[in-house]
Design the sequence.
């Protein structure tokens, strides 16, 4: 089995990148061959292929921001990638995120159509079936269902000063719908249901939840100052991660509780943090992150929109109960004995849940076992390997 995988990044510090690399390891361990291609930053593994140069990415970004044309540049870089793919001669091409200012999806899709290679496409967000956005639920927008006409959200990632959402939507629908041998993987049931309402509903759609290594994310020894610790973690606290929630919560909690925030925070939001919130920068070590999860008495994910919720299952794997916003895919991973899904805007209700968790810690003793049973890394990778084998058999 020879699988070529493509994603924006190829590092363990980014969820889609980590998923791609974990699947690549499983392919090699099963006796197959793996080709990993990425467009941004540096790779965590040897023998991976970087698509284009930093200059290519800068030019692509500028054009995209001026003319709302994400994924329509990096032409030479994409042609060089295709030459590498032809040389590798994959049995399967596995796409992850193909946005991020590094590849021409127009050229890539035409090549995939012409050579008729079986394709698996894991959707980590909603970009593939909208005219612009990766997420839209916080804006209560459903224009992606009928054409993305008159988009008001071109300022969201991928940022642009103009809007060509109708053109982008029609081009994506034409190119993506023309792929002859595509299976789509949604990382949550919520995302699968969204896909079934999109122009991609003609393709087989399977749900394979993201997985983590429970031998890395596990309860770790940690120090304690005796306070009830509330934790929030994000790689980057963008607008829809809703860091403002913790400012509101900080006004409510008593002195026997503390709030710790981990991850990159834009300077403006960092300056607005409540004085009683402690901010820790981004961890590049999963082991360090597991230690901070383990030190928390409760983990809160207040995000307004998530297609899965990786930090939530990481926290539970470290035996930490969770509270998540009752929106998009976040409630899927919660059970009554692992935490609560709640309207995160209701600070009084959140506070009541915190008190219940504080007073009944033994009620939430099933967190880690729930993750081992349902979201362990080997469970995820085995599902992908089975999917590859199934597509190869059908291809023959």
Sequence:
């Amino acid at each position: 089995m020879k699988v070529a995988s493509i994603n924006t990044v190829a590092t363990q510090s980014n969820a889609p990148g980590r998923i791609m690399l974990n699947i690549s390891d499983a392919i090699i361990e099963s006796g197959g061959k793996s080709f990993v291609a990425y467009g941004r930053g540096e790779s965590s593994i040897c023998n991976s292929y970087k698509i284009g140069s930093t200059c290519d990415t800068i030019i692509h970004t500028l054009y995209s921001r001026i003319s709302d044309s994400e994924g329509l540049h990096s032409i030479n870089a994409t042609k060089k990638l295709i030459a590498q793919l032809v040389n590798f001669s994959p049995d399967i091409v596995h796409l992850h995120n193909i946005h991020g200012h590094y590849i021409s999806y127009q050229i890539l899709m035409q090549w995939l159509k012409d050579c008729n290679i079986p394709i698996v496409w894991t959707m980590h967000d909603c970009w593939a079936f909208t005219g612009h956005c990766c997420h839209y639920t916080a804006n209560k927008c459903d224009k992606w269902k009928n054409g993305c006409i008159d988009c008001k959200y071109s300022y969201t990632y991928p940022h642009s000063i103009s809007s060509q959402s109708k053109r982008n939507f029609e081009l994506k629908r034409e190119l993506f719908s023309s792929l002859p041998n595509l299976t789509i993987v949604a990382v949550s049931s919520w995302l699968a249901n969204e896909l079934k309402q999109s122009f991609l509903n003609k393709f087989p759609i399977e749900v394979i939840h993201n997985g983590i290594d429970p031998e890395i994310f596990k309860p770790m020894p940690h120090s304690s100052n005796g306070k009830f610790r509330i934790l929030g973690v994000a790689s980057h606290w963008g607008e829809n991660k809703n860091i403002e929630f913790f400012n509101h919560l900080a006004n409510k909690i008593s002195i026997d509780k503390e709030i710790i925030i981990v991850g990159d925070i834009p300077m403006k939001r960092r300056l607005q943090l409540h004085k009683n919130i402690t901010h820790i920068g981004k961890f590049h070590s999963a082991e360090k992150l597991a230690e901070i999860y383990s030190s928390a008495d409760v983990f809160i994910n207040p995000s307004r929109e998530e297609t899965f919720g990786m930090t939530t299952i990481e926290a539970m794997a470290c035996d930490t109960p969770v509270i998540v916003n009752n929106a998009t895919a976040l409630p899927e991973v919660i059970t009554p004995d692992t935490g609560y899904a709640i309207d995160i805007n209701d600070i009084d209700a959140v506070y009541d849940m915190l008190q219940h968790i504080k007073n009944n810690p033994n009620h939430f003793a099933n967190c880690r076992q729930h993750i081992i049973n349902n979201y362990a890394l080997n469970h995820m990778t085995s599902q992908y390997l089975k999917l590859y084998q199934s597509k190869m058999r059908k291809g023959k």
Observations:
- The chain is about 35% helix and 15% strand.
- The first strand starts at residue 2 and ends at 7.
